[in-house]
Amino acid sequence: MRAAVLSAFDSPVRLTDVPPPVAGPGEVVLDVAVCGVGLTLERARTGALGGSTPRVVGHEIGGTVAALGPGVTGWAVGDRVTTSFYLVCGRCRWCAGGRETLCDNWGGFIGVHVDGGLAEQVALPAHGLVQVPDEVALDDAAIAADAIATPYHVLTARAPVRAGRTVAVIGAGGGVGIHVAGVARAFGATVIGIETDPTKAAGLQSHCDEVREEAGDLRADVVVDTVASRASLTAAVGAAAKGGTVVVVGFQGGVTVELDPTPLVLEEVTITGSRYASRADLMATLDLVARRRVTPVIGARFPLSDVEGAYRAVQDNAVLGRIVVDIA
């Protein structure tokens, strides 16, 4: 079968013929219809997320069940599914409590520590799958399972947003940032997009209530930083209103920031992080998409035969929204 394979860290991802996967105990094989591509895949390519090579990459998957491994129940051939990005045990106290991203027995990332979904087929743990509603297209499901589920977790678990609040999004034109804006608006918030790229800023006009190049004198109830550079983190803290919350979603290793603790004490500003989403978050996100409360933003499409073009688009960082690769 055809698959996008990273042969060694820091090398290009190439389309290669590999043996089709076989479902082991507790696994299913999926026929992949579509796979999303974002900055996480570029970080995986460089080795920043660990794992090993050679590796079939990709984790934002929309597909159908093709085969069941020994011991798998609750799924049937033909079921439309997506999957969690994380390999979690489903049994520890964190998983049982709904905070799967803090799993004590975390096994890594799909497409990094095990083969991923930029391929015609993929074998995955059955307990990580999530059913896709009939009303949701598989390409939208693939985007929802990461680029929308991540903001959903931010705005429900880390900094719950109510109608009438103001949410500022730093890096609003990116694949996650534009969907932070979409989820926040679905919850009734006023959204301020902060984006330095003029082309992306122009495209954001219909997704945000206001678009700015810099935070400036902005004071928002929630500030979501999807960039996490020294400059963006400093701006995020400065843009938080009294009693506000700064949520860091993206991260860059080695970045440090000097902070004046005054607003943290006198204005009770909270700074926290948010790590991906749980399967329950994925289900809730797919429901929002099914009810047309949130619309996935697909900015570019590539065939599997041009997976290198999809990677170049990610590296150029010029696409508004998410990039998808059509597998069929």
UniProtKB/TrEMBL annotation:
InterPro entries per UniProt: ADH-like_C, ADH-like_N, ADH_Zn_CS, ER, GroES-like_sf, NAD(P)-bd_dom_sf
Cofactor(s) for this UniProt protein: Zn(2+)
Keyword Metal-binding: yes
Enzyme Commission no: 1.1.1.1
Keywords annotated in UniProt: Metal-binding, Oxidoreductase, Zinc
EC primary class: oxidoreductase
Catalytic activity: a primary alcohol + NAD(+) = an aldehyde + NADH + H(+); a secondary alcohol + NAD(+) = a ketone + NADH + H(+)
Keyword Membrane: no
Domain Enoyl reductase (ER): 7-325
Family: Belongs to the zinc-containing alcohol dehydrogenase family.
Protein name per UniProt: alcohol dehydrogenase
Organism: Pseudonocardia ailaonensis
Gene: adhP
